[in-house]
Design a protein that fits this description.
About 70% of the residues lie in helices and about 10% in strands. By secondary structure, it is an alpha+beta fold. The longest helix is centred in the middle third of the chain and has 40 residues, at about 175-210. The relative contact order is 0.07.
Length: about 350
């Protein structure tokens, strides 16, 4: 049941973004980070909630005011506990549940504010208007990344309150209701503009991250991408490395020039992707490549596939058909910062041992 709920909330969250499904999935964590309220602002909003509900009960002594305060208090404590348990970086499924609690809190708070205004007490009316507009403003800014949620939520939150204002017996109630709706329309415009700026910024950040982790020549991951991938591995999980170094590649550059050499590197990267059979391939620099194995596949089989692919003729890249070979070394162990350096050294030693022995398979 929790998995079904999380799957439903994930699909609903992606739909709320108004983005194509693939892009919504890519930006999901970043948008959630923008939507999530941090603990300090949550505590501050809690002070405002308890002040509003406390004053309402103090002035009315009505059962609804007491129930309103209790419900808002429970929802506040639930959000606070969930955030405190997960720390600063809450998992996405927890963040979605906290956001769901926030929606319930907003709905409950809005109903109570409407009831406060309907009492006719001037103090409660002023506090209710301030609270409703502050909450709607929070929706327009914090939920800007979820326009299909933010805009209907602002309308559902504000329209009933505008009706309550219009039906009240205060002077010029209709004019006040119209002014309230004009401000609401402004908040919706703010939400749309903020959403546009937010998505543009997130797209630029994601593009910059991809560029920083991509080798500009071959289009595969670079050393930074390799470090990110290895850092993301669960501690003590088994993994393997296949280190690849082209033999006598300098002679290609010296004979045909760097333009031909670049074409050869791109072709080698393409062939390594084929040999890796789904495992990520990284260009570590120059003519050195690395394949990361995390699913227990046979390292020797991958290494043999690399040698086979590289030694195939390369026609059309240079005035003459090129024939290259590659030295390959492997290493394996368990994930961890200290172990990674050891496995890298192990793979490189095996590779250069092959070079020194001249045991290059052609």
């Amino acid at each position: 049941m929790p998995q079904r709920l999380d799957s439903f909330l994930e699909q609903l969250f992606d739909w709320f973004t108004g983005l194509p499904r693939q892009e919504a999935a890519e930006l999901r964590a970043d948008i959630m980070e923008a939507v999530m309220l941090k603990i300090a602002p949550l505590l501050l909003s809690g002070v405002g909630i308890f002040l509003m509900t406390g004053v309402a009960f103090q002035l009315t002594r009505a059962p609804w005011a007491l129930a309103w305060g209790i419900v808002n208090g429970l929802l506040f404590v639930a959000r606070l506990v969930a955030m405190a348990r997960t720390g600063r970086a809450a998992p996405l499924y927890v963040a979605r549940r906290i956001s769901g609690l926030s929606i319930l809190a907003f709905v409950g708070f809005g109903i109570g504010c409407g009831q406060c205004f309907a009492t006719g007490d001037p103090t409660l009316q002023v506090m209710a208007v301030i609270s409703v507009m502050a909450t709607a403003t929070a929706m327009a800014t914090r939920w800007a990344g979820l326009p299909r949620l933010a805009v209907p939520a602002i309308l559902a939150y504000s329209l009933p309150f505008a009706v309550i204002i219009a039906r009240s017996d205060i002077h010029h109630a209709g004019l006040l209701a119209v002014q309230f709706l004009i401000v609401t329309a402004g908040l919706i415009t703010l939400a749309r503009q903020t959403r546009k700026g937010l998505i543009t910024t997130l797209r630029a950040q994601r593009l910059a991250q991809r560029m920083a982790a991509t080798d500009p020549l071959t289009g595969i991951g670079n050393r930074a991408a390799f470090e990110i991938a290895t850092a993301a591995m669960p501690p003590t999980s088994p993994f393997g490395l296949v280190s690849v170094d082209l033999d006598r590649f300098k002679a290609v550059n010296d004979t045909f020039g760097h333009l031909i050499g670049d074409k050869v590197l791109c072709e080698v990267a393409r062939r390594l992707i084929v040999a890796a059979d789904g495992h990520p391939v990284f260009r570590m620099g120059g003519d050195e490549f690395m394949i990361l194995i995390t699913d227990g596949d046979d390292l020797a089989a991958v290494a043999d596939a690399v040698r086979h692919e590289v030694r195939q003729p390369m026609p059309g890249l240079a005035p003459t058909c090129l024939h290259l070979t590659a030295s390959v070394g492997t290493g394996q162990g368990l994930a961890g910062p200290d172990c990674l350096d050891l496995i890298l050294h192990q793979a490189d030693e095996a590779l250069y041992s092959t070079k020194r022995a001249g045991a290059v398979i052609a």
